Amino acid sequence: MSWVLEIAAKGHAGLAAQSHDWFQRDALHSLLPLPGILHADIYLPTAGGADPFVVPAAGPLIAAIVHVRTEGDLRTAIASVAFERWLAQRPAGLTLTATPMSGNAYAVDGPRAELRRTAYRYVVRYHGSREAAASFADHYERTHPPLLAKLPRIRAIECYRPLGALRAPHCEPADYLIGNEVEFDSAEDFNAAMISPARVALRADFDALPRVFRGHTHFAMRRERHHALS
Question: pTM to 2 decimals?
Answer without folding.
Answer: 0.93
